[in-house]
Amino acid sequence: MAKERSYSSLIARLKAGGLRPTRQRLALARLLFEGGDRHLTAEQLHSEAEESAVRVSVATVYNTLHQFTKVGLLREVVVEPGRSYFDTNVDDHHHFYFEATGDLQDIPSDRLRVRELPEPPEGTRIERVDVVVRVRNLET
Questions:
Q1: pLDDT digits (tens, 9 = 90+) for 45-79
Q2: How many structural domains compose the chain?
Q3: Final residue of a domain: which of 86, 103, 120?
Q4: Which residue, among 130, 128, 127, 140, has the nearest Cα to 104 in the 3D structure?
Q5: Given 30, 39, 48, 96, which residue has the most CB atoms within 10 angstroms?
Protein backbone atom coordinates (compact mmCIF):
# COMPACT_ATOMS: atom_id res chain seq x y z
CA MET A 1 0.00 0.00 0.00
CA ALA A 2 2.80 2.47 0.91
CA LYS A 3 4.65 1.64 -2.32
CA GLU A 4 1.46 2.28 -4.32
CA ARG A 5 0.95 5.63 -2.56
CA SER A 6 4.60 6.48 -3.25
CA TYR A 7 4.19 5.82 -6.95
CA SER A 8 0.95 7.80 -7.14
CA SER A 9 2.77 10.78 -5.64
CA LEU A 10 5.62 10.39 -8.16
CA ILE A 11 3.18 9.99 -11.04
CA ALA A 12 1.45 13.21 -9.98
CA ARG A 13 4.80 15.06 -9.83
CA LEU A 14 5.76 13.90 -13.31
CA LYS A 15 2.37 14.74 -14.78
CA ALA A 16 2.44 18.19 -13.12
CA GLY A 17 5.69 18.77 -14.99
CA GLY A 18 4.13 17.66 -18.25
CA LEU A 19 6.12 14.41 -18.34
CA ARG A 20 4.67 11.02 -19.15
CA PRO A 21 5.30 8.66 -16.22
CA THR A 22 7.25 5.93 -18.01
CA ARG A 23 8.66 2.96 -16.13
CA GLN A 24 12.20 4.35 -16.31
CA ARG A 25 11.21 7.87 -15.26
CA LEU A 26 9.26 6.48 -12.30
CA ALA A 27 12.15 4.26 -11.23
CA LEU A 28 14.62 7.14 -11.41
CA ALA A 29 12.20 9.55 -9.71
CA ARG A 30 11.79 7.08 -6.87
CA LEU A 31 15.56 6.88 -6.38
CA LEU A 32 15.87 10.66 -6.54
CA PHE A 33 12.99 11.87 -4.42
CA GLU A 34 12.29 9.24 -1.78
CA GLY A 35 15.47 9.98 0.18
CA GLY A 36 14.84 13.63 0.97
CA ASP A 37 16.94 16.51 -0.33
CA ARG A 38 20.16 15.40 -1.97
CA HIS A 39 22.79 16.26 -4.56
CA LEU A 40 24.03 13.67 -7.01
CA THR A 41 25.68 13.30 -10.37
CA ALA A 42 24.26 11.34 -13.28
CA GLU A 43 26.89 8.69 -12.69
CA GLN A 44 25.90 8.35 -9.04
CA LEU A 45 22.24 7.97 -9.97
CA HIS A 46 23.14 5.37 -12.60
CA SER A 47 25.08 3.39 -9.96
CA GLU A 48 22.11 3.57 -7.57
CA ALA A 49 19.84 2.38 -10.36
CA GLU A 50 22.11 -0.61 -11.06
CA GLU A 51 22.25 -1.47 -7.35
CA SER A 52 18.44 -1.35 -7.26
CA ALA A 53 18.16 -3.60 -10.33
CA VAL A 54 16.78 -0.76 -12.46
CA ARG A 55 17.89 -1.41 -16.02
CA VAL A 56 18.66 1.97 -17.55
CA SER A 57 21.49 3.34 -19.68
CA VAL A 58 23.71 6.24 -18.64
CA ALA A 59 22.29 8.22 -21.59
CA THR A 60 18.76 7.68 -20.30
CA VAL A 61 19.82 8.85 -16.84
CA TYR A 62 21.30 12.05 -18.33
CA ASN A 63 18.23 12.65 -20.49
CA THR A 64 15.87 12.08 -17.58
CA LEU A 65 17.83 14.38 -15.25
CA HIS A 66 17.79 17.14 -17.86
CA GLN A 67 14.04 16.63 -18.47
CA PHE A 68 13.37 16.82 -14.72
CA THR A 69 15.50 19.99 -14.52
CA LYS A 70 13.72 21.60 -17.47
CA VAL A 71 10.30 21.17 -15.83
CA GLY A 72 11.49 22.35 -12.39
CA LEU A 73 11.68 19.04 -10.52
CA LEU A 74 15.47 19.39 -10.08
CA ARG A 75 18.12 22.11 -10.13
CA GLU A 76 21.41 21.61 -11.90
CA VAL A 77 24.46 22.88 -10.00
CA VAL A 78 27.54 23.24 -12.18
CA VAL A 79 30.65 23.19 -9.98
CA GLU A 80 33.18 23.22 -12.82
CA PRO A 81 33.11 22.62 -16.56
CA GLY A 82 31.89 19.09 -17.20
CA ARG A 83 30.90 18.44 -13.56
CA SER A 84 27.27 18.92 -12.60
CA TYR A 85 25.21 17.83 -9.65
CA PHE A 86 21.44 17.58 -9.63
CA ASP A 87 19.71 18.94 -6.56
CA THR A 88 16.31 17.70 -5.42
CA ASN A 89 15.84 20.89 -3.38
CA VAL A 90 14.47 23.39 -5.89
CA ASP A 91 13.89 26.19 -3.35
CA ASP A 92 16.19 29.22 -3.50
CA HIS A 93 19.48 28.39 -1.81
CA HIS A 94 23.22 28.26 -2.43
CA HIS A 95 25.96 25.67 -1.88
CA PHE A 96 29.26 24.91 -0.24
CA TYR A 97 31.39 22.75 -2.54
CA PHE A 98 33.99 20.65 -0.74
CA GLU A 99 36.82 20.44 -3.25
CA ALA A 100 38.55 17.47 -1.58
CA THR A 101 35.49 15.21 -1.54
CA GLY A 102 33.28 16.65 -4.27
CA ASP A 103 30.39 16.97 -1.79
CA LEU A 104 27.81 19.75 -1.87
CA GLN A 105 26.08 21.19 1.18
CA ASP A 106 23.13 23.56 1.11
CA ILE A 107 23.46 27.15 2.31
CA PRO A 108 20.02 28.54 3.19
CA SER A 109 19.17 31.59 1.09
CA ASP A 110 18.82 33.78 4.19
CA ARG A 111 22.47 33.06 5.12
CA LEU A 112 23.94 34.73 2.03
CA ARG A 113 22.99 38.02 0.41
CA VAL A 114 23.83 38.96 -3.15
CA ARG A 115 23.66 42.71 -3.76
CA GLU A 116 24.04 45.10 -6.64
CA LEU A 117 23.49 42.75 -9.52
CA PRO A 118 24.25 44.23 -12.92
CA GLU A 119 21.43 45.11 -15.29
CA PRO A 120 20.72 42.08 -17.45
CA PRO A 121 21.23 42.37 -21.20
CA GLU A 122 18.38 43.98 -23.09
CA GLY A 123 15.42 41.68 -23.61
CA THR A 124 16.35 39.39 -20.69
CA ARG A 125 15.67 39.14 -16.98
CA ILE A 126 17.58 37.59 -14.12
CA GLU A 127 15.95 34.25 -13.37
CA ARG A 128 17.99 33.34 -10.28
CA VAL A 129 21.47 33.62 -8.86
CA ASP A 130 23.41 30.50 -7.91
CA VAL A 131 26.40 30.89 -5.61
CA VAL A 132 28.84 28.03 -5.07
CA VAL A 133 31.29 28.67 -2.23
CA ARG A 134 34.34 26.43 -2.64
CA VAL A 135 35.90 25.21 0.61
CA ARG A 136 38.99 23.19 1.55
CA ASN A 137 39.97 21.58 4.81
CA LEU A 138 42.45 23.53 6.89
CA GLU A 139 45.88 22.00 6.76
CA THR A 140 47.33 21.27 10.18
A1: 999 999 999 999 999 999 999 999 999 999 999 99
A2: 2
A3: 86
A4: 130
A5: 39
